[in-house]
Amino acid sequence: MEFINLSRQYKEIEKEVNLGIKDVLSSQSFIQGNQVFELERKLSQFVGRKHTISCSSGTDALVIPLMAYELKSNDAIFCPSFTFFATAESISLAGGTPVFIDSDRHNYNMDLNFLEESIKRIKGEGKLNPRGIISVDIFGLPCDYDRLESLAKEHNLFLIEDAAQSFGASYNGKRACSFGDVAATSFFPAKPLGCYGDGGAIFTDDDDLAEKMRSIRVHGQGEDKYTNVRIGMNGRLDTLQAVVLLAKLKVFEKELESRDIIAKKYTERLKNDFITPDVPFGYKSAWAQYTIEAKDTKSREHIINHAKNKGIPLMIYYKTPLHLQAAYSSLNYKKGSLPVCEEICNKVFSIPMHPYLSDDEIEAVVTAVLGS
Ligand SMILES: *Cc1c(COP(=O)(O)O)cnc(C)c1O
After folding, report:
1. pTM to 2 decimals?
2. Looking at residue 156, what is its pLDDT?
3. Which of 81, 168, 227, 244 fits a disulfide with 323 by CB distance 3.0 to 4.6 angstroms?
4. How far apart are CA 273 and CA 263, in angstroms?
């Protein structure tokens, strides 16, 4: 069994993808072809946001807005420690300093009480200048954006939603990628909506910010290609990837429903023996991962090895929180400083999740996990 089976999805969309690729090959419009702009319009409609700026990866979808905010090295950007490395890396690439926040013990998103205290502490210390927050909808579950948006407003911080794992999810009837000042998502193949390479998109309702980000996406261009008004990057999405995404968008709602049904089946079978994901009222997850907890690290290792012997791949997202990564050793976080996310890292594991899992496969996964 594969952790994520993309060939089954390809069977569903094969005709459309192949025709689309052929079109691009005939037009030879590989960079910023019409399909890129068609995709941007469709994504804006889907998410419910005025501007969509497609780009080269989820990482660049975070770096570009952070570059637009023109960070200084003592600008503090608050972000969770329990996330993929790119969340914090983008802050460093854009010249700011990440301040890591501990996790909520139940839903693994940022602990918003911890966040509020950290903002006050950083303000009080007077060394770093609080500028913004990046919230991550971890494993596909949106954060509490009512509280996050009001916290950001109260402390005069920008808010970026890292929705790399939550494209398609929703909170109180609003789609992921519609929260904060800017939202970023990734189209890496394994994400809920993935292309056939690297890709990403940025979403905002702010006209000025959108214009700035479009400029940064193409080398800080001004009114034409060879007028440069700021430092930018080469951050465009390929036309070929846009074609793949347009085809996948057509089956995406159906896929989200399947993910939800599969998640419910998993929960039904596993809830008596494991801590299973809790999706609170008003939330819909995109189920980028279905993640449960073992008693401790040793028992997790045992479960993973047992399942592997039965041909079931299990994965650990994430083994090391970002504040303890070697790349951030200069920030001097100590082991034990963010105890909740450290505990989560020691216990969690993810089981196969994609919209084309059969009932037999679900049963095989459940049997392997329960039988160890
Ligand atoms: C995948 C991911 C990213 C980066 O996306 P890429 O397309 O791989 O650059 C950023 N943040 C989170 C939370 C992710 O899961």
Report:
1. 0.98
2. 98
3. 81
4. 16
